[in-house]
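Practice problem: ABC transmembrane type-1 domain-containing protein
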Amino acid sequence: MTKGQWFRMLIILLIVWTVSSLWIDNSIILPRPDEVFLTMYHQALSSTLYYSLMLTIFRVFFSLSLSFGLALFFAFLFFRYNKAAVYFHQILLFLRSIPNVTFIILLLFWVNRELSVTIVAFLLLFPIFYQNIYEALCEIQKTWKDVLKIYPQGFKTRCRTLYFPLLKNAVVTSWITCSSLAFKVVVMAEILASVSAGVGSNMQFARLNVDLVGVFAWTIWLLICVSLFNKLLKNILFRIYE
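Answer key — structure tokens:
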């Protein structure tokens, strides 16, 4: 979507939101935009906002980096030893079939709240990174199969000269896809695990106080944060692969 299309969509949403809130006339059910924006203004004057956003961003980035690093390692490992890949894929399929809420409940019995957020995010993001990278490696191998037969190279040489350079699309797509998903799962985990600080914990605090204005305000801050994070991430990724 172009900037103009985004702007028109936001204007339409704002009009619908304003009309609906005036018609309902109950801030507990649907607050007015001016109430939410005023709350956001007061939040912007407090250090709590910036600390919470930075803490959530750190959790997201750490979970993304950990998931990508291990996914890259295991993707190359099982691509190299593909006979064992079948068993590993079955394990991943089993893990992906378990609801995230179940993981959070179980992890709260075994580890502390902070660590449970990271583990839950990892369990969701790792399979996505792994599958995208592994399938990209298989596709590269299939495409260049004849060339590799004519000019055989060792596995390390193929990784350096063929696989790593051609993984650009898979890596960029995976990071962009997982970045938005990471914010969703980290904030959800922050809420369910009741961590001490973060966007999710503030949303949970607002919910417990029946403060829907606060929930809306934190949601909008989160959307702004996700948008800026994704834009910065895209710029960094494309600079790396220029």
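Discussion: The mean pLDDT is 83. Students who identified this feature from the tokens alone can consider the problem solved.
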